Amino acid sequence: MENVVIKTDKLTKRFGDFIAANEITFEVKKGEIFGFLGANGAGKTTAMRMLCGLSMPSSGTATIAGFNVYKQTEDIKRNIGYMSQKFSLYEDLTVLENIRFFGGIYGLSNRELKSKGEELVEQLGLQKEAKKLVQALPLGWKQKLSFSVAVLHQPKIVFLDEPTGGVDPVTRRQFWDLIYEASAKGITIFVTTHYMDEAEYCDRLSIMVDGKIEALDSPANLKKQFKAASMDDVFYQLARGAKRSD
């Protein structure tokens, strides 16, 4: 249990008569790259909001980085990072201003902000762009910077919500190199994506259909169970209501 950083048991979210997340149960280990897949409306975002301490569950239990989702939401927020395709950085702030702003939110001291900021700019090769507005950066660089800012405070878990939407395949692959580096440092990666080739990069995958987890295993095992050549095929079969062949 020491290596389990996310644990849910029958975690459920209701909105009136509608059940957005229906008794989802799973565990994620330290340093694991865990893919959370599902079609639009499957319940992914609702589940992620509960795990981030942003939405109170209707029932069930969950601990995130050892903290209870009902009683310790502020502790959860201090121990996680978050990045989404829709909102990650302030476009009207410079690269360094974004780093300092989000680093401050994550609780870094002024000394840490200065040293980590300089280190991050150098690591990403953004020395010449450090004082430029983020809106001037290409999308791929924005996404890399967003991810780096999300793990600046060395969180136990980083939640990535469709992080590579709209970027080219080469940049997407470079982005995943950053994910591997963070995972190697012991940071757990919880990622949603609609790119099935990216699903292959995960250690394990959970696939939600209509609010329920219908499959959970490594990409290789899922393809074997569903007699599929690709994760696209696994996803398609699940969407049609197919059952695995154990």
Automatic annotation (TrEMBL):
It holds the Pfam family ABC_tran. The keyword Nucleotide-binding applies. InterPro entries: AAA+_ATPase, ABC_transporter-like_ATP-bd, P-loop_NTPase. Keywords: ATP-binding, Nucleotide-binding. GO terms for molecular function: ATP binding; ATP hydrolysis activity. Residues 6-235 form the ABC transporter domain. This is ABC-2 type transport system ATP-binding protein. It comes from Pedobacter nyackensis.
